[in-house]
Design a protein that fits this description.
Helices cover 16% and strands 44% of the residues. The protein is an alpha+beta fold and 235 residues long. Strand 3 (66-75) and strand 4 form a beta hairpin. The longest helix has 22 residues, at 3-24. It is globular and about 45 Å long.
Length: 235
């Protein structure tokens, strides 16, 4: 096991122990605040057969605000490596409040790309090197994002955002960053309910989710990453 994975697992165990202690504490013991008033946290690790890895951190506050951080390292069929770092805030209904996505590539001729999504302002900003472009997107439905630059597939967090957004509306606003446009998609074209959870389709990639988080992500290039066992945070 890599050192980073060992540290990640240790953090997961500590978070799980904290949650268990809070739930098991008898009424009136310790602090007068109810355990439900606190912030619940969980972490999840992903691994793929080509060596792809992913780590996600989730925080659900007492006000229902959900914060997500993800670091995904994808090994593509071409041999190239893509890395995606995501920081996303969702409101109590599961819609994006803000999202910051940074993508990098092992290819020397591919610059890092940073995306900033702010649905309340109807703005998607893309920065690549010294070039910055902005396009406007209607806030008429929950936003989901796909078609990231540099041929980057979907990520576990992108799939989870689609699942959460689908809980609130019959349509989703799909933001295609590489094309600089968006379009409305009927719910059943992006999210399909199953007996075991929900299947999310983002472009040519698909993911299966359950009540815990994303269970696995199947990429169009043949790679797939699967969630490893760990503590769960159930919404």
């Amino acid at each position: 096991m890599r050192t980073s994975q060992m540290l990640f697992a240790a953090v997961s165990i500590v978070a799980a122990a904290s949650l268990t202690s809070a739930c098991d504490a008898p009424a009136g013991a310790g602090d007068s605040k109810e355990p439900s008033k606190g912030t619940a946290e969980s972490t999840h690790a992903f691994a793929g057969k080509r060596g792809s890895t992913g780590q996600t951190w989730r925080s659900l506050g007492p006000d229902g605000i959900e914060k997500l951080h993800g670091e995904t390292r994808l090994m593509l069929a071409s041999g190239a490596e893509r890395q995606v770092v995501e920081d996303v805030t969702l409101d109590v209904s599961g819609r994006i409040v803000s999202a910051e996505i940074t993508t990098t590539s092992s290819m020397a001729n591919e610059l890092p790309v940073r995306l900033h999504l702010v649905p309340s302002e109807g703005i998607v900003r893309i920065v690549s090197g010294s070039t910055e472009t902005t396009f406007h997107v209607p806030a008429d439905a929950p936003w989901v994002y796909t078609a990231l630059p540099a041929g980057i597939p979907a990520t576990p967090i992108a799939a989870w955002i689609a699942k959460r957004g689908a809980d609130t509306a019959p349509w989703l606003r799909v933001v295609s960053a590489s094309e600089g446009r968006s379009f409305l998609a009927p719910l059943d074209q992006v999210v399909v309910r199953t007996e075991t959870g929900t299947t999310v389709v983002l472009g040519q990639d698909a993911a299966d989710t359950d009540t815990v988080f994303v269970r696995d992500l199947r990429l169009s290039g043949g790679e797939s990453i699967t969630r490893m066992n760990g503590p769960a945070l159930v919404l």
